[in-house]
Amino acid sequence: MAETYSFELKGWHAVVALVVLAAFTGARVYLNVQTVDDGERQAIRGWLAREYQGTDAKGLLKRMQDASAGLPAEPLPSTPMNVEIVSAGARGTSNHVLVKVQVMVDGGEPPDGQAIRYLELSRYDGAWSVLYNSSPYAYSRALWR
Q1: Which of 50, 89, 109, 126 is deepest in the core (most CB within 10 A)?
Q2: pLDDT score of 107 more than 80
Q3: What pLDDT, in 10s, does the model give residues 83-98?
Q4: Cβ distance 109 to 115 under 8 Å?
Q5: Domains parsed from the chain with CATH numbers
Q6: Is the pLDDT of residue 79 over 80?
């Protein structure tokens, strides 16, 4: 026959358990909120500028497909775009973060119309690189990793 055990938190035991749980949760959230440093900002600006100018992997693949289909090549922008990060917040660890950035391009809205972007970054040998575009859901979940 199986024995059943019951455990109840009453009185001051319940208060202590709630305080410990709240402290653990608060510490976990506090440790996952990061600041965006200059290296991260530089990596984000470079990634977004290449994407907006069409010189990223997706843009180059499109150019190659157009060329193989016999379509004339679209000229690349002659002047570099000024990608400005208006605000940024990061969540994650010291070497892997999800970043929410609000950007402006040449003082206005970005070419794709997305002023707020979510990106996943990683640091390897001290240099930050953008891994890929992310989502608001992943950004909110990163708080609880």
Answers
A1: 50
A2: yes
A3: 899 999 999 888 889 9
A4: yes
A5: 12-144 (3.10.450)
A6: no
